[in-house]
Structures are given as structure tokens and as C-alpha cells.
Amino acid sequence: MGISSALPTAPGAKPGAFCCNERQGEAMVLGVRVEPELERQLDQLAQQLGKSRSACIREAISQYLIRHGDGEEARRQSEQLAQLQQPHWSEQVPNWSDWTA
């Protein structure tokens, strides 16, 4: 029996595909598709940091959730930025009153 045949498959999945919601101990196993270049960069970073791919991905997801997970915090920050009332870049016209040719 090969490795792929030992993995759980989702109903209707293609041969060789595996289910991404099986639990191993307390951690959830997720399957993610990434471009080859992103995979190469991940492997390079993991090697430089002396971590596994999984450790790097867990840390990235955790940081993403900290930054973007709290909708109320994002809304509060957006309101603060709006209060600064900086004009749109296209509305910023230089003062040419002292310009001479």
C-alpha cells in the first residue's frame, strides 16, 4: 500500500487527493495549494530559521489572525485614519503662486 492510498480521502476526491480535516492529536491537518515559487521560498526560509514548514506556516497564520482577525479593531483604526482627513493624492495641488518662468 502506497503512502497516498493510506491517507484519508474526501468523498468524490480525485485519486491521490487527501482530506484536509483529519485531526492528529490536538492539531488540525490542513491542505494548502501554493505555487512552486512560494513553496521554494518557504523551504528556504524554514531552513534559514531552522524550523519546519509547518512551524513557519503556523506562525504566519497566527500573525495574520492577530492582524486581521478582529473586525472591530480594523474598523476602529479605519475610523481613526478617516479623522485625519488627508486629501486624496489627486486633490493635492502644489502652490504655484510664487513660481516664475
Beta-strand fraction estimate: under 5%
CATH class of the domain at 17-72: Mainly Alpha
Helix content: 40-55%
Unreliable stretches:
1-10, 13-20
**What would you call the structural class?**
mainly alpha
Could you tell me the radius of gyration in angstroms?
A: 24 Å
Under CATH, the topology of the domain at 17-72 is which? Arc Repressor Mutant
What does it look like?
This protein is mainly α and 101 residues long. It has a domain at 17-72: Arc Repressor Mutant (Orthogonal Bundle). The chain has four helices and two strands; from the N terminus they run αββααα. The protein has helices at residues 3-6, 36-49, 53-68, 71-83, and strands spanning 23-24, 27-28. Strands 1-2 form a two-stranded antiparallel ribbon. It is elongated, with a radius of gyration of 24 Å. The relative contact order is 0.05. Residues 1-10 and 13-20 have low confidence and may be disordered.
In short:
The protein is mainly α and 101 residues long. The chain contains four helices and two strands. The chain has a domain at 17-72: Arc Repressor Mutant.
What's the structural blueprint in terms of helices and strands?
Layout: H1 3-6, E1 23-24, E2 27-28, H2 36-49, H3 53-68, H4 71-83
Antiparallel strand pairs: 1-2
Protein traits:
single chain, 101 residues, mainly alpha, Arc Repressor Mutant, two-stranded antiparallel ribbon, 4 helices, 2 strands, elongated, disordered N terminus
